[in-house]
Write a structure and sequence with these properties.
Chain lengths: 299, 342, 323
């Protein structure tokens, strides 16, 4: 390899404005902890080989994880930036790459590049607002980053409600943290639900959109003009939650979500994750719903 | 302004090659494409359009980005070294140079693609003005003047002599290096050639194609147009248009297992391919109509929306010449304006 | 052509067919495109001339899934492909109303342009009348001409014959345009030394840009999902990382269509780099003919191809191996 100043190993180069370590070249990350959340979801803790975090990120941003020789995929960073020690990714087993990731053990090395994309506006729009988080299944992953950020900067935000549901009690991710941390934080109300009755489950049963409506109509969760809702889950859930919120008079400008499409580069150049003229990897993944309405329905 | 006789071009190429890699149109098995010069290469400056555009000199069809090795369960990433020696691309046409301008918008915008940027920095473009434009050409529509290519050096082939004019500092430097083979001359012949070719351009059947109604603001209207359901039908879903196009820049990133490590490479991809947007849990463009629409919407609406109105088409006409189903961007544009006329 | 349009209008108007699959007039003298016509009025844009080389058989795979019958225009050689697709249960005979269209050889615009003709604005002599042996070509650089035969596609020089192998009716006269020996080029390559052969194919295949046009146009390549498109396959489609992959792609494809290829020549017609891809397939056809006896894929629907049919008279493997 040449020792020229453009050498990729060197992070500094000033030949072009913005010229730095190429974003397509990853870093090595070490898996330092694996938690089995559900039968098909694991949370992976990732550190730099020399310890510490690989990079700084904001809630809602994503990173490309890769098992060399298998494939690479975009995953949302589920840990909060306020966590100064590591980054976490909650990953559901559903394809070739995730299958491979699930077979890894603590100590395994993967490659990581990022962070990519925009983030939930935690330092601007969300400040001082009441927040309602609505998540289904693995959809909690990106929202968890925001929730923990809000908890760690509790004074900056109003009331917080978390409505979270899954197929069954066994499919609720981050249950330990939900019970031990979120439920014990003042000003945070957690509302859990599962799709069908299950032995040993004493909480609410029913789909998330219906639950949202029930909670709203009963006044247990308030969707006022000072409330911002953040939604993530399967497309069908999002669709019905939107309907429910709209019925309750919530404006689309008060709702944020995060989208997912096939991504390869992460920086809006490889050309596949566009919806109209917006690239999900670069202009998203976080969108306000009124912005989504202006995009062609191709997601 | 300088000139050199056509029969002395071999010496010119040899001289350039002494200090630079040299890429130029070379004929292999009956087809002309840009390739590295060697003494026995069959250089072809007469063919107006190479099959593939020369974009792969700056953005190769496949290139390794890094190698990843595993030793004692530790991963080691060795990035591919960037191009760091000057090279010359000879014989690029004005439309293809405009194509590079389009690619610059993509690869040199933040975050800069260092692989591409290094090639742009070290590449010296010697353009060749068009002498006999063809019926599939419509560069004029995109504001390209095929008689006046904007490069480091512009050249004109007139009556067996190549006229040479440096336009940039890089071009001056190259001119200096090959001056021994050039003789000084006046611009009169070049001026006459330019106006003669401009007259031909006016007569080309596509030169007055109207782009009215195509810009970054018509997204919803054009996206929802029923016409796409008709237009895509003959499309074979191959990638010919994409791969011969000077502005198509979509790429894939993949791993190649060498048996002794993994090479991460990127290669051209096509939005026409069924797996382009395929994910583990589905595909957001699962019909050929959607994929077909994507390609033209990208060139005529999405790209201008993101790049101050610049289209991602330069009118080189390669898709017009090469589409196996005789479909192309001109037919798409015309179909929309005919519909508008009704 | 007028007779064809009139008949198509009749069949469309009386409801016999729901649509017409033919060619729509292009915006150049030589670029008609395959098209569906669903109304009588739309047929005003129907065209059939020497540049209608596209084999419409493969479009019938999709058309077979549509409601009602599709009138499809097939040239004599296209009917072989249609039969082969019928044999493979990829098209539905009941969904097709086949008009066998007359053919006197189809033109290759690339070949015409290779003679140095550029800036084409009009071509006469490409109409499907019998009189023209010469193409009169207007260009912005003056009037040019080219003999019809010189402008013909390679496949027409080794025409399989003027007979339509399957049809509901025939409109127009056909002419057997063969003036060359079909296997001559294959024999020439067979006679090369292994090094020469390798050089020949290397220089041809190094041009491949992996655009998949040959595969996508091929009526024998009708798999719903091609192995080269599988994300699970290590050398999936797009990357021509090294020449090995290119060679593998074309050779695997040739093996896959062996015994099923009707030699329709579409692969070579559409290749943007002018690779004579038909030679691979023709080599297989020649071998099959020599080892198992003459066989023409698609000559008859439902026929058992030698490679999928065992017979006690079959050549012994040792004979095959000796070759």
């Amino acid at each position: 390899m040449s020792n020229h100043e453009h050498n990729h190993g060197e992070h500094e180069c000033t030949c072009f404005p913005g010229f730095k370590h190429d974003t397509l070249i990853p870093m090595v990350g070490v898996i330092t902890d694996i938690r089995e959340e559900t039968p098909d979801v694991k949370t992976f803790r990732v550190n730099a080989p020399e310890g510490g975090k690989l990079f700084e990120h904001m809630p809602g941003q994503c990173a490309m994880l890769c098992v060399p020789g298998v494939s690479e995929g975009m995953f949302s960073i589920t840990s909060s930036p306020t966590n100064k020690e590591y980054q976490e990714f909650s990953i559901k087993r559903c394809g070739m790459l995730t299958e491979m990731l699930h077979s890894l053990e603590v100590g395994s090395e993967i490659t990581v590049r990022g962070p990519y994309g925009n983030n939930f506006p935690v330092d601007t729009v969300l400040k001082g607002k009441d927040l309602v988080f609505i998540a289904g299944g693995i959809g909690l992953a990106p929202l968890r980053s925001v929730i923990n950020y809000v908890i760690d900067n509790r004074a900056d935000y109003g009331k917080v409600d978390i409505i979270y549901g899954s197929r069954s009690a066994d499919d609720l991710v981050q249950l330990k943290e939900i019970r031990e941390v979120w439920m014990n934080t003042p000003g945070i109300n957690v509302h859990l639900t599962i799709d069908r009755e299950q032995e040993g489950w004493e909480g609410h049963v029913g789909f998330v959109p219906t639950f949202v409506k029930e909670l709203g109509e009963a006044g247990q969760v308030e969707f006022g003009i000072n409330t911002i809702s953040l939604i993530c889950g399967p497309p069908i859930m999002i669709k019905f939650v939107l309907g429910a919120l709209s019925d309750m008079g919530v404006s689309k400008t008060q709702i944020y979500t995060t989208l997912e499409l096939r991504m390869k580069c992460g920086v809006g150049k490889c050309g596949r994750c566009n919806i109209g003229s917006k690239y999900v990897c670069k202009d998203g993944p976080v969108f306000r719903f009124d912005e989504i309405d202006e995009l062609p329905p191709e997601y | 302004m300088y000139k050199i006789a056509k029969e002395n071009l071999a010496s010119l190429f040899a001289l350039i090659h002494e200090t630079n890699e040299l890429y130029l149109p070379v004929q292999v098995a009956g087809q002309t494409n840009f390739a590295a010069w060697s003494e026995d290469a069959c250089v072809d400056l007469d063919t107006l359009k190479t099959v593939k555009s020369p974009k792969d000199v700056f953005f190769p069809q496949s290139e390794t980005l890094y190698t990843c090795n595993k030793e004692d369960n530790k991963l080691r990433i060795t990035p591919e070294a960037l191009v760091d020696a000057p090279f010359v691309v000879f014989g690029m046409k004005a439309c293809d140079i405009k194509g590079i301008e389009v690619l610059d918008r993509v690869f040199l915008s933040d975050p800069v693609d260092s692989f591409y940027a290094a090639r742009r920095e070290h590449g010296i473009i010697v353009a060749l003005a068009c002498h006999e434009p063809e019926e599939s050409c419509f560069c004029k529509v995109f504001g390209v003047d095929c008689t006046e290519p904007a490069a480091d050096v512009a050249t004109w082939m007139i009556e067996g002599e190549l006229y040479w004019k440096a336009l940039t500092e890089k071009g001056e430097k190259l001119t200096e290096a090959v001056k021994s083979l050039l003789t000084e001359t006046c611009e009169a012949k070049v001026e006459a050639e330019k106006s003669a070719v401009k007259e031909i351009v006016e007569k080309l059947p596509y030169s007055n194609l109207s782009l009215e109604g195509w810009n970054g603001d018509v997204l919803t209207e054009k996206f929802n147009d029923e016409l796409w359901n008709e237009l895509y039908k003959p499309c074979l879903a191959c990638g010919t248009c994409t791969f011969v196009c000077p502005t198509c820049q979509c790429y894939d990133i993949k791993d190649y297992n060498t048996g002794n490590g993994v090479q991460r490479y990127r290669c051209w991809d096509s939005c026409m391919y069924s797996d382009f947007t395929m994910m583990a849990h589905g595909n957001n463009r699962n019909s050929q109509m959607q994929r077909f629409r994507q390609r033209f919407m990208h060139k005529l609406v999405y790209f201008p929306a993101n790049n101050d109105g610049m289209y991602s088409c330069v009118g080189c006409g390669r898709c017009v010449d090469k589409c196996p189903a005789s479909l192309n961007i001109v037919k798409v544009i015309k179909a929309f304006s005919e519909k508008g006329d009704k | 052509m007028q007779e064809l349009i009139t008949r198509a209008k009749e069949l469309l108007a009386d409801g016999t067919v729901a649509r017409v699959l033919g060619w729509k007039i292009g915006d150049m003298p030589y670029n008609p495109e395959p098209a569906y016509f669903e109304t009588v009025e739309s047929l005003d844009k129907f065209v059939y001339n020497g540049f209608c080389g596209a084999n419409l058989s493969k479009y019938m795979i999709e058309a077979s899934k549509l409601e009602g019958k599709t009138l499809v225009c097939l040239k004599p050689c296209d009917t072989y492909s249609f039969n082969q697709l019928l044999t493979e249960h990829r098209v539905d005979r009941d969904k097709a109303y086949i008009i066998g269209v007359g053919c006197k050889g189809k033109l290759d615009i690339e070949k015409i342009k290779k003679t140095g003709i550029k800036g084409i604005t009009a071509i006469s002599g490409a109409e499907m009348t019998d009189a023209c042996d010469t193409l009169e070509i207007d260009t912005i650089y003056g009037k040019k001409s080219c003999s019809y035969a010189d402008g013909m596609l390679e496949r027409c020089h080794v025409c399989k014959g003027k007979e339509h192998k399957i049809y509901d009716e025939i409109i127009g006269e056909s002419r057997d345009t063969a003036d060359g020996e079909r296997f001559a080029e294959v024999a020439r390559i067979e006679a090369m030394s292994p090094e020469e052969k390798f050089e020949f194919f290397k220089s041809e295949l190094s041009k491949c840009i992996r655009c998949n046009a040959c595969r996508n146009v091929c009526p024998a390549c009708s798999c719903r999902k091609c192995v080269f498109d599988s994300t699970k396959f290590d050398s999936a489609q797009k990357a021509n990382v090294d020449s090995f992959e290119e060679k593998m792609f074309h050779i695997i494809r040739a093996f896959h269509v062996a015994g099923r290829c009707t030699d329709c020549g579409e692969c070579s017609r559409v290749c943007p780099q002018g690779i004579p891809l038909h030679l691979f397939n023709r080599k297989f056809i020649k071998d099959i003919n020599e080892i198992y006896g003459e066989y023409v894929a698609g000559a008859e629907a439902g026929s058992r191809a030698p490679l999928v049919n065992f017979d006690t008279e079959d050549a012994e493997p040792s004979i095959v191996n000796e070759r």
